[in-house]
Amino acid sequence: MLIIEGLSRRFGERLAVDDVCLEVPRGSFVGVIGRSGAGKSTLLRMVNRLAEPTAGRVLWDGTDVTALRGRELRDWRARCAMVFQQFNLSGRLDVLTNVLVGRLNRVPAHRSLLRLWSDEDRAVALSALERLDIANLASQRAEHLSGGQQQRVAIARALVQEPEIILADEPIASLDPRNTRVVMDALARISRDYGITVLCNLHSLDIARAYCDRLVGLSAGRLVFDGPPDALDEAAARELYGLEAEDAVGPAPAPMPGSPAPQASPFTLHA
Ligand SMILES: Nc1ncnc2c1ncn2[C@@H]1O[C@H](COP(=O)(O)OP(=O)(O)OP(=O)(O)O)[C@@H](O)[C@H]1O
């Protein structure tokens, strides 16, 4: 169980995350939604301590993650894998080596420095690639893959950490609709099959609704919605997205002839 207790983060005058409290049972697939700047990334980054809280605590199975230091903090980060929008792969290395990087915390330092991967490590990495249907790409340079393939490599790298939580920060923001589905399917499958808790920041409410079993909505750093996707009604959407929600909750005005294409609403799939 992940427990977030009164978590806040201040940057100067701005409260990026403001007194957020959450309880997330193991194996949940939680979508964190809200407008740009609502505090979604900062919240996720505090869970694995890439950002330090100004106040509050993060507990995992009773351990105060916010108090961990040194070796214990490194262990926590290994159990709490991150997946980023920009994949963060080494483009010139092959796919298998990129995935093996996720094993670094599990092998002795001298072996990791020399990249002496054991047969077992290679087998684990290949099996993760198989789970993501990209084992055939193992020997290709990462920079030669499509965005969707690269994100699947990044998820495989997270998987070989054998994490208990995956924190995915806008994992589909730079993908087209088909790859968006492939990547979200992969995250959902991993969560379901391995009982891994997934917290996933998403701009697109359509995608969050389709894939997540719970939505957590932030507005100006505050938690303004927490519930199943079908409980997110018009009033909650307005509180989350303000005027932008007009597009989704009312009939869209027909565009004037010759006028520019309308802006995508936060309720539609962002490619
Ligand atoms: N390192 C930082 N220094 C100063 N301000 C920051 C920093 N990181 C985030 N902020 C501010 O905190 C607020 C929340 O940012 P955050 O990136 O968490 O929002 P977000 O919901 O993830 O936005 P987006 O969807 O655009 O990524 C924003 O106002 C942002 O400008």
Structure notes:
The chain is globular and about 50 Å long. The chain has helices at 40-47, 70-79, 95-100, 109-113, 119-131, 147-160, 177-194, 205-211, 234-241, 246-249, and strands spanning 2-11, 14-24, 29-33, 55-60, 63-64, 80-84, 165-169, 197-201, 214-219, 222-227. It is α/β, with parallel strands linked by helices and 271 residues long. It contains ten helices and ten strands. The chain has one domain: P-loop containing nucleotide triphosphate hydrolases (Rossmann fold, 3-Layer(aba) Sandwich), CATH 3.40.50.300. The structure holds adenosine-5'-triphosphate. Adenosine-5'-triphosphate binds next to strand 2 and helix 1.
Ordered list of secondary-structure elements with their pairings:
Layout: E1 2-11, E2 14-24, E3 29-33, H1 40-47, E4 55-60, E5 63-64, H2 70-79, E6 80-84, H3 95-100, H4 109-113, H5 119-131, H6 147-160, E7 165-169, H7 177-194, E8 197-201, H8 205-211, E9 214-219, E10 222-227, H9 234-241, H10 246-249
Parallel strand pairs: 3-8, 3-9, 6-7, 7-8
Antiparallel strand pairs: 1-2, 1-4, 4-5, 9-10
Helix pairs in contact: 5-6, 6-7
The protein binds adenosine-5'-triphosphate.
Adenosine-5'-triphosphate is lined by residues 11, 14, 16, 34, 36-42.
